[in-house]
């Protein structure tokens, strides 16, 4: 149970850091996806630890 006190601030930092990155990704014309970018898109950044910011190659 004592480990929960240590993990809670860690999860809050992850959530806080991910919120602004999604907005930044969309501002750059991208979209967030889990894992790697889909076919015909390229990575332009990160939305969160597990999400990549991708942009279509044709648009």
From TrEMBL:
Keywords: Antibiotic, Antimicrobial, Defensin, Disulfide bond, Secreted, Signal
Transmembrane spans: none
GO biological process, one term: defense response to bacterium
InterPro entries: Defensin_beta-like (IPR001855)
Keyword Signal: yes
GO molecular function, one term: chemoattractant activity
UniProt KW Cell inner membrane keyword: no
One GO term describing the cellular component: extracellular space
Limits of the Beta-defensin-like domain: 23-55
Places the protein is found: Secreted
Cleavable signal peptide: 1-20
Pfam families in alphabetical order: Defensin_beta
Family under the similarity heading: Belongs to the beta-defensin family.
Name of the protein this chain belongs to: Beta-defensin-like domain-containing protein
Annotated organism of origin: Bubo bubo (Eurasian eagle-owl)
